[in-house]
Amino acid sequence: MDKPSALTILTTEHYTLQMVRTATITDATGRAGHLLTTISASMIALGFVAQVVPPPVLLTLVLVVFSGLFLIGLATLFRTVELSIEDVQAGLGINRIRHVYGDLEPSTRDAFVRQVHDDTAAVEADAGQTGWPKARRPKLIGTALSVAGFVNLVNGLVAGTIAGAAAGLLGAGLTWSIVIGALVALTVISAFGVALGRIGRRGLAPITTRYPRTEGDPP
Questions:
Q1: Cα separation of 8 and 55, whole Å?
Q2: Are 91 and 124 in contact (CB under 8 A)?
Q3: Contact present, 141 and 132 (Cβ < 8 Å)
Q4: How many CB atoms lie within 10 A of CB 72?
Q5: What are the tens digits of pLDDT across the range 80-116?
Q6: Cβ neighbours of residue 167 under 8 Å, at least 6 residues apart?
Q7: Is the Cβ–Cβ distance between 158 and 73 less than 8 Å?
């Protein structure tokens, strides 16, 4: 295939992958925003109800409403993870195409400010995770700061609220209800964080890296 035809095909695919990344980011942030809006509206409604009902009734309402919010949050969480995988896949493809650009016209290689390697480390660098060079677990930090990590945090807090309300209905005092809710929140956040990390690795596993970073490559 001649160079002009190859460039046309590559630029078309590059544009398509960039549109995919834009769509995934928009979808993920939109879903997270809808989740927060739903939780905020529910809390406002419960705040009005709290003025006219006794505590047991309020705790029951909190238990029921937040259980529904937790299910909505789970659906949002797993969808944002899927979108994150799609985004990384598209990022890998763009980096791969950028590498081929440099092979077709070596004089342009030094002009690229983004990565030209199609491994996950390069996508993480493009995402700004190199801002944590001294962190022991930069991947963990990047995951926690992602949309999926944020939704996981919100879901953990919702689960903690459910546990605290249930403890209150069972006769636990305020202190114990708070402690139980905090422990449940931490457990849910940690458990789903580990599970989602494994799902992400499995989602990226089928992609074969062709142009990984090698020793001596610029960061």
A1: 67
A2: no
A3: yes
A4: 17
A5: 988 988 888 888 888 888 888 888 888 787 888 788 8
A6: 176, 177, 180, 181
A7: yes
